[in-house]
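WARN retry 2 of 3 for item q-0093 after timeout on previous attempt; input resubmitted unchanged.
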Amino acid sequence: MAKKKSVPLRMCIACREMKAKSEMLRVVKTADGEICVDPTGKASGRGAYICSAEDCRKKLQDKRLLHKAFSADVATSVYQTIGEKEIDKK
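OK item q-0093 returned
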């Protein structure tokens, strides 16, 4: 009998729901302190995940959740990039 492959789950920082990693967008803070969107999901650094729901993206910007997740100032251009980014569903 074949084993079932486990699907990695991550928590959305806005709605706090666990979802498949492939359905979410990763934002990463590198060792240099730079905060950027990570479309590959493989960049080294501290990551935070946001799901594709419009409510979550709005809440992310309104409550400045990336500031809280990374304990650092985040440029508004990062929030704009997240708002424009489409999440590829595999």
